[in-house]
Every structure is written in C-alpha cells, then in structure tokens.
Amino acid sequence: MTVIVPELVVVENNNLDHKEEINKEEEVTKEEQQDLKRDGGFEVPESNAFGHSFRDYEKESERKESVEEFYRTNHINQTYEFAIKKKEYYEKLDKTEMSIWECCELLNEFVDESDPDLDEPQIEHLLQTAEAIRRDYPNEDWLHLTALIHDLGKVLLHPAFGHQPQWSVVGDTFPLGCAFDENIVHHQYFKENPDNDNPLYNTKLGVYTENCGLDKVTMSWGHDEYMYLVSKGNNTTLPPAALFIIRFHSFYAMHRSGAYRHLMNDEDHEMLKWLHVFNKYDLYSKSKVRVNQEEVKPYYLSLIEKYFPAKLKW
Ligand SMILES: [Fe+2]
Ligand SMILES: [Fe+2]
Predict the structure, then answer these.
(1) Considering every ligand atom, which ligand is closest to the CA of 118?
(2) Where do the domains of the chain lie?
(3) Could you say which residues bind substrate here (predicted)?
C-alpha cells in the first residue's frame, strides 16, 4: 500500500527568524526553557497519583523528585498487556460523542489550572502552536488542524471523562513488546517492569520484525495513542503524516534520540520529517504569544469541518 505523504518544503530560514523573534519577544530565560522542553513529557499535573502537588513546589529538587516518581510509576506499569487492554477498551469509541471544539473546551476546564509548564488555558497552547505553524506553512492546513488537536487525548484525565491517572496519560511514550531503549527518559526504572524479564519482550525486536513499520508497533498507552484512535476511528480525512504526528509526538526516544530505527520503514522516515517540523513549534509555542481566540476560531472550525465529522465518537 502506498501512503501519500505531503511533500515537505523546508523553510529553515523562516523558522530561524521565527524562533529568534519569539525568543526576543518573550525573553525566555534559560531556566524557563528547561521547563518548556517536553510537550508529551510532563505537562498537566496539579497533583499526581501520590498526592504531590506540582504547583506547590518551591524547590527545583522537589520537582525533580516528583517528575522522577512519575516516570518510575509509568515505567513499571506500562506493559505490553496493559497497553493492549487500554487500546481494546478505548478503541470501541463508545464513551461519549462530542465535536472537536467541544473537546477543546472540556480540556480547557481543568488543564489550565494544573500545568506547571503552562499558565494559560490549554486551548491557548493548542492555538499558539497551530498559529505559529500556520504562519510558516500557510498552505498546509492539515498541519494547522493537527496542531490544534494533538493534545486532545488528555481528556482522559478529566474527572467527567476517563479520570485516568497521570502516568497513563502524559509523559514520553515508547514501544512495548520489545526491549526498552536506553534513550528513554529514566530508563533505569524499567528494571521493575515485568516485561523486562520476559524473553518474548526483552529482545531488540521482541514481537516485531525488522523494519515492520511503526504502525505495527504497540506503544505505551497515553493521550497520543488515544487521540490517534479517535481520529482514525472517526474516519478523519487528515493525511497519514497528521496521524503520525498525533500518535508519536511524545515518542522522544525515536524523534529526538534516533532510537528504534530498526522498527521503522521508509514511510515512517518520510513522515518523521513532518514530526520534526511540528515538534519545534509545539515547544516554542509554550510562550506568551497571545492569540485572539475569537478571531481565529472560524478558521479552525472550517478545518474541523473539512477533516472531521460534526460529532465524533470518543
Ligand atoms: Fe502539545
Ligand atoms: Fe502531547
């Protein structure tokens, strides 16, 4: 099967200007940059499963401990079996019905108060990312919409929705059913993951074959995978590169560190170019560029209408 990947037109200079401009405008300090680093990495927590409040931290060391504790729990509990069960449960899409915009609003209700990296409503982050990309890639409307929806899977955290624990919604994602690569953040905690001792899952290829393609791979469960299932299950007409971005934007070991190349096929490499483009904007847009929501809303509603049904199953 041939997958059509939109051609990537490199706008390097444009991007550089944009970066400089944002950095100048926002005077992002080095310390703040540290906090901006990972979108899928560590975003939402107000309090984690252990009752630590991330907003209360006075000391950087406390924060680091909390983040580390988060990843310890994540790495111990994300097993091949766990991810498959979650996928089977959520891909039924029988939980509720709502539009993309309704989901944005639902997410807005609570994430804005809880994300130590974002002191603005979640929708601001989504629109900032989308608008920054739109400015540099005006013709790729699919990419603008991808930016708007990439984090909507976080509704799994919402008390009125999934109310799932943080460790199963946010954080870096990674393949299951094969060995954990040492480039995954806090790799040491996989020692306590039962899959690590299972000979079926602890070899380089595990249950996979060489260059089988990432679409064959079971990823750790989180907001990325969920939004991918929702998009696909509702027959979005977004191109494959959009689904690739949604599904793998927190897969830092792959797109940042170059790990797991042995599972990727040629199409993955093509789509990875777009993920790299997207990722730059996802990070930089966690700054204080204001977006006039009312002004841009009609544009995004028109994109939603173009690529999605009016009501989606979730
Ligand atoms: Fe994001
Ligand atoms: Fe994300």
Answers:
(1) 1
(2) 63-313
(3) 55, 112-114, 154, 171-172, 249-250
